Amino acid sequence: MMPIDTIQKKDFPDLVKYLEKCWREQVEKRGTGAVSPLGLNRPIKDIIDEQLPEGSQSLNDICVQIERLVIPYSVQTSHPLFLAYVTPPALDICVLGEAISSMLNQNVSFVNLSPIGTAIEEVVIKWMGSIIGYGATSCGGVLVTGGSVANQLALAVARRSILGQEVTKKGNYVEMKHQRVYCSEHIHRSVYKAAALIGIGTENVSPVPANHRHQINVEDLQRQIDKDKSENKIPTTIIGAAGTRAIGAFDDLEALSKIAKDNQLWLHVDAAFGGALRLSWLAPNSLQYLGYADSVTFDPHKLLFVPFDAGCLLVQDKQRLLDTFGSEGEYLERSDPPGRDIADFGMDLGRSLKALKIWLAMKYIGAKAYGREITRLLKLARQFESLIKSTSEFETLIDGESIIVCFRWKGEAKSTDEELNNINGQIPLHLRRKGLAFINPVSINNKIGLRACLSNFRTDKQHLEELLDYIRECVES
Amino acid sequence: MMPIDTIQKKDFPDLVKYLEKCWREQVEKRGTGAVSPLGLNRPIKDIIDEQLPEGSQSLNDICVQIERLVIPYSVQTSHPLFLAYVTPPALDICVLGEAISSMLNQNVSFVNLSPIGTAIEEVVIKWMGSIIGYGATSCGGVLVTGGSVANQLALAVARRSILGQEVTKKGNYVEMKHQRVYCSEHIHRSVYKAAALIGIGTENVSPVPANHRHQINVEDLQRQIDKDKSENKIPTTIIGAAGTRAIGAFDDLEALSKIAKDNQLWLHVDAAFGGALRLSWLAPNSLQYLGYADSVTFDPHKLLFVPFDAGCLLVQDKQRLLDTFGSEGEYLERSDPPGRDIADFGMDLGRSLKALKIWLAMKYIGAKAYGREITRLLKLARQFESLIKSTSEFETLIDGESIIVCFRWKGEAKSTDEELNNINGQIPLHLRRKGLAFINPVSINNKIGLRACLSNFRTDKQHLEELLDYIRECVES
To answer: Among A403, B202, B292, B374, which is disulfide-ready with A454 (CB 3.0 to 4.6 Å)?
Structure first.
């Protein structure tokens, strides 16, 4: 049998040709065809049932499986009516970036193990820091898989910063007092998962009531902190949202920052998609205070149009990350100058060069063009809301302030909320079965409706008009 | 200015051509040239100092930067004398896989959001489960970035399994007793980072003394558990190593499994690179008991030759993952049948289709060819040790049992250990400065020597003979 390298060299020209073919097909297909295949059907079951291959399968057989199974059964996130999540189409240049990263297979953990990977990650962190409003000199950050891990690391950095070095050694048993974390009742559920993981428990996340615009009620927040202090608990962290998941609402970050300072707490802001809105002159007002936060979650795989995985935790003071995650290992060389080994900024000791695709995207697009596109998406969201209000069969559920539009079909006849909930709840599945649109249900003030995330640079007003037509047809049939 | 999509379509043919060019250059370069550029030199500083680009840079300018900076300043992990870590060259087919994954940009969190991505991840988990010795029906797992995160999730699953649902809600404050984790004094430092993150603290990791073969001393382990119980602490987890980082040693997994059962503890085994040795008939004996572990860390980016990031946590009973990480979100659809949403198996709620590159690798290579190559690497390690012993200037520091060889230059004259430590400690940097080899120092019983990880399918005996010559020249000059 041939050694691995010989097999590879033989197949290599076919691989490149095949990649080009897939790429061209994808480009042609974009925006047509079913947005989303459904169900556990036969071909997918065949994939799951396959046993560990003993022999080598031919490149040709493998490519046939990619063409017949992988591509057709993928959800088409680049479709103009894929609106279920803030998951835009990936920029082509990032596909190049990921291919080159894989080829180079750098471990971007230690500066000596990947001098160039470290430099590229440092510069994209600096660029993202400047987008969200941090100064260039002292801010830092680390690339992670996504917002969930960024929020989780943020809770760890907050804990370490408030409680000191003892907490690294003794854990949450320090002083044997309950640590407390505060956030809006509308916060992303990853915060609860993170609280469970870092061992403070979901019950020590205090969901503060929000106002009708889904913003943390700051009086309630202060009251909750006072109550916890009086009960001998240790408040550590306030988590604000710059773009809640349901409606894309923005907490009053100036007020949260003041409360954090007054009470000596850490302010973390989940700006996974919201942070990038700062590139637009139409950004929600509250975002001007984003740089007041001690740490910020910012996902390049959202409005920077970079493919998964590309998340990021940014911190105002880089030293806080080193304090939390830095450690010494016996066989590891240290960076020179010290403090540049990215392993000391987060949890991963083996880390890909995922910074490359972000670097390429930011150079290829540039801040201005990003800002222009994000402005277009913000305007599109307001236009879509106007369009909805101008019809007799639809209504908005809330006035949005970012790229998320929540609305429902209400029909012309007077229906009860229960009837409307039932109808609207079924619309997403019908649209997906027909392959027309992928949109998620949402519940606001007990009204079930539809939630459209406008994050795709291929979606325009005409597509949204079509969406309303599809919904009309769907309800009527 | 042009919209993003128009820029992309214009540049698209050039992108594919460019990727092909990079690829061909890489293939030609493999095994030649400097294995590792060093230092914070001018071109790298230029990258770090660049400000956030305002305008769009041309594809041509960007490609020039890739050619002049990114590729030449990368550490050549595919070089036959890159021996510093278990970081093999990436299989070409995985480059294709990552490119296609990026293109499709699937979020493999919920089965309805990526039916095909979920299926592919499920089947590679099953295949890896069968490699490490788990039964196909009840085992489960989740792909993560690497071994560090796998170990971290394992500690969380162990805690949840031993302490029950209360720990998710109340955190480590349950019963206000210290939880305890046991491992060899030679365990990977990621375990300490994980203990800090999950809030039990590094002091609650108990490093058990090891024997001369770097295996946990089981009597000491039982003694430590008894002591902790008598002090009203809660033992939860034993962490065994199937391949320690320094010398690639294997704990007595049968004995650890017995102690775990007797004391009702969770047994986790870090088999990040060691697990794949089961594909070879030369696998260390202890590995036949790997399937006894409740959970196992297994990194496809190690001996499956998949590029970063590709780590995996495997568990004997899939339900344990769901118990630990499953939760309900208001806007999320649930899988049908339930229990297939990968978001409920780990921490990420946005997850790439990294399973694709693993799936392609395992199909393209197949279990037999993997086994043959791993057998070759194991034999090569023993041959290298024999070669070292046959010389008058080198000696091994310990007899290895896997793919790691620890040795030192001792010269012909009688030198003190202090002199030899000094000389051997300087060899790695000299070899890297000359671009000849990338090898790490290691310290065993206070002797500083060199550690060669034989994980590259392009490394053969001749390369290792060259390495000894390079070291001779280096010491003499």
So the answer is: A403
